UniProtKB/TrEMBL annotation:
It catalyses: (2R,3S)-3-isopropylmalate + NAD(+) = 4-methyl-2-oxopentanoate + CO2 + NADH. This is 3-isopropylmalate dehydrogenase. GO terms for cellular component: cytosol. It is found in: Cytoplasm. InterPro entries: IsoCit/isopropylmalate_DH_CS, IsoPropMal-DH-like_dom, Isopropylmalate_DH. Homodimer. The keyword Mitochondrion does not apply.
Amino acid sequence: MTLKIALLPGDGVGPEVLAQAVKCLKAVEETFNQHFIFKEAPVGAIAIEKTGTPLPDATLTLCKESDAVLFGAIGDPKYDNDPDAKVRPEQGLLQLRKELGLFANIRPVLSHPTLLDKSPLKKKVINGTDFVIYRELTGGIYFGEKKLNPEGTVASDLCEYSENEISRIAHLAFKAAKGRKKKLTLVDKANVLESSRLWRKVVTKIGESYPEVALDFLFVDNAAMQIILNPKQFDVILTENMFGDIISDEGSVIGGSIGLLASASVGEENALFEPIHGSYPQAKGKDIANPIASILSVAMLLEHFGLAEEAWAVKKAVDKSLKKGIVTPDLNENSQYGTNQVGDFIAHNIVDIEDDFRMNDENIDLGKSTII
Ligand code: IPM
Ligand code: MG
């Protein structure tokens, strides 16, 4: 298979982690005889500096002409701390999602057996967690009308959803649940918000066509509590844009580091793959950012194109790095391994996927290994 992949490294640690993802795709090319054509383009703060806009036309055109987009990260503190800034890096990502019609953002949340003690939550609570968040990505309060009165003293953001926007992602979420543990939880605020009541109505109706999937509902405040009280109760969580943004960061605590969570954003025509973490500006250029979320986004990309064996090889290689303690400092503060070394190790293990572990994995504590 030949795939055209647009590379959008973006800001902060984006370029560093994306470089590791590309190494892994090259390892997949080498091992499985696939062919990827990479083209890079600027987005975010870096694009504002170069062109005055966070999503230059040439970048958007490249993305539209590609089979998939691999995204690094976006954001710069310079803009975060300036409420009057007219252009913001994040607008680039939001516009890209909208222009490419990427209405469903899929974020798996898993506990990894080797990393159970990295989470501040109790092992017995998180062990065995395996759920996936389907976050609506091109509607709601993110994209509704924004107003600020001339005095700059009153502001509003409209949260609007149409039946069609709800139903297209609901179908994807029900199909996913059908292939998993057959449970779908709609997270909303239907006790207060009209838009949430529409979500309930539409999702309940669609649920009738998926009788094998058990549907339940949770208010978002309760869901925020349940996700850390008893994350194992979830299978597929379906929710609107902003609730999904918030609970997916919360979910990352279960995995032990936000540097592990990957995501896929899909639409009718296009697909984009990115880590859920931000640009982590404090770590920029220090070779300490965890590349695993970006590498697991590659696994999601491969799965999206039906390359199941290739995706498995990438995940297996990531597992191996976790088991052998070839990890960045977010997972082991004494780690000697940097972003690049972790990327090299994982890419190397994709190539050598048949290699047997030379050590007894069960006896290796995270961070104690010296193998690379
Ligand atoms: C995410 C991010 C983005 C969002 C930002 C960078 C605009 O937090 O992908 O979760 O809010 O969607
Ligand atoms: Mg977010």
